[in-house]
Amino acid sequence: MPGINGFEMAKRVREELRLDDLVIMMLSSNELSARISQMKEFGLSHYIVKPIKRRELYSAITEALADPASDGANGASGADRVHGGKLGPGAPVIERSLQILLADDSPDNRMLIDAFLKQTPYQLELAVDGVEAVEKFKAGKFDLVLMDIQMPVLDGYGAVRQIREWESVQRVAQTPIVALTASALDEAVQRAHAAGCTAHVSKPVKKTTLLRMIASAVQ
Fold this sequence. Notes:
Elements: H1 6-15, E1 25-28, H2 36-41, E2 46-49, H3 54-66, E3 98-103, H4 107-116, E4 122-127, H5 130-139, E5 144-148, H6 156-170, E6 177-181, H7 186-195, E7 199-202, H8 207-218
Parallel strand pairs: 1-2, 3-4, 3-5, 5-6, 6-7
């Protein structure tokens, strides 16, 4: 918006008007996953990506007002409830604890996925590059790996290959590995599968898509 943008407006509402219990919902023309730290800073609890559909808007408003965690006065982080923060019928969840290794060099992406899984029984172990991912995989026991493809030191392709080689040497069953790709093009998908990935999710990652993929991969 001209003058001041939505983030600045939200900041002023929180700091100057002290309306901590007001639910502020962002209407954005693009995914805000890369700015989740900024959302957390300004106490933003939900956002909707344009073009806005009537059903999505109604659902988001209903969830925001019904969610006691949306009350900024209780100190809860608004960024933990991105995309409504509740598990609706389109977000299947395995009703048991899953140990998930997430490898991603982006702090914002790690925070986003952690927020998506807050209300699930899933436990996240984090790695910031391919080398750390391989080391943690060998040292732990995981039900699933979420592997970013573009990472420093060792990229996702190389990390997956090393994990598959280690599994082969150890003669253990392959752990499902979901590639997090910046592209949904067939070439990127095929390359991920060739490296040993079980499935892929294209970025920006959406909560329902991620939860559906996790449920499908471990069943």
